[in-house]
């Protein structure tokens, strides 16, 4: 390793002061984060409040909002119809996503106490998929095990009935829709954070800042 360049803390802080981040750029990063992470309604509110134009077309935004609202309201069939109307290839080419949406349908049946309907749905719609994929079969078995507990709070997989599970499914659909439209599925803030960490490590190797 070469000799580190030595600079004072005051000099370093002075250099940092030259770095200016425009509010407009920060707003665009926030907007990008909200959309790509599935917080579509929050993104729409932020757009109206900040006058920040998203880098996603209005048709896609409308689909994202409709699908997210449907999934998080437990109307998974409605969400799947909206996705298919927008682009049928999304579910046709993504078997893992298709299964997770079907799994969410099963969870909603269990949540509503429709035991026999849930068992029939699992057997007819999900079991054939599980036979071809061991990881999917394990997820299916975990989900069906919810039926064995009268008190789901004591169930080891009770988190499947949490609102967070709906959000997880909605985010997965959200990412697939964005990818289908050639948009990044991961927020730009994530990439910027990785670059920041890399830059910090590089500076640590090259500079010695005197306090």
UniProtKB/TrEMBL annotation:
Residues 60-117 form the CTLH domain. Pfam families: CTLH (PF10607), LisH (PF08513). PROSITE patterns: CTLH (PS50897), LISH (PS50896). Transmembrane segments: none annotated. It comes from Olea europaea subsp. europaea. This is Glucose-induced degradation 8 homolog isoform X1. The lineage of its organism: Eukaryota, Viridiplantae, Streptophyta, Embryophyta, Tracheophyta.
């Amino acid at each position: 390793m070469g000799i580190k360049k030595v600079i004072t803390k005051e000099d370093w802080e002075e250099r940092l002061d030259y770095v200016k981040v425009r509010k407009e750029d920060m707003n665009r990063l926030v907007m990008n984060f909200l959309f790509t992470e599935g917080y579509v309604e929050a993104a729409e509110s932020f757009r109206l409040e900040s006058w920040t134009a998203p880098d996603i077309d209005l048709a896609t935004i409308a689909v994202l909002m409709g699908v997210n609202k449907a999934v998080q309201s437990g109307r998974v069939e409605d969400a799947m119809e909206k996705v298919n109307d927008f682009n049928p290839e999304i579910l046709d080419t993504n078997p893992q996503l298709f299964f997770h949406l079907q799994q969410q349908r099963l969870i909603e049946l269990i949540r509503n106490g429709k035991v026999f309907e849930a068992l029939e749905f699992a057997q007819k719609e999900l079991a054939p998929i599980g036979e071809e994929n061991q990881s999917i079969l394990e997820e299916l078995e975990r989900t069906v095990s919810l039926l064995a507990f009268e008190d789901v709070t004591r169930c080891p997989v009770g988190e499947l009935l949490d609102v967070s599970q709906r959000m997880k499914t909605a985010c997965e659909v959200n990412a697939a829709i964005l990818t289908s439209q050639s948009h990044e599925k991961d927020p730009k803030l994530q990439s910027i954070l990785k670059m920041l960490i890399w830059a910090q490590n590089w500076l640590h190797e090259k500079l010695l800042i005197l306090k």
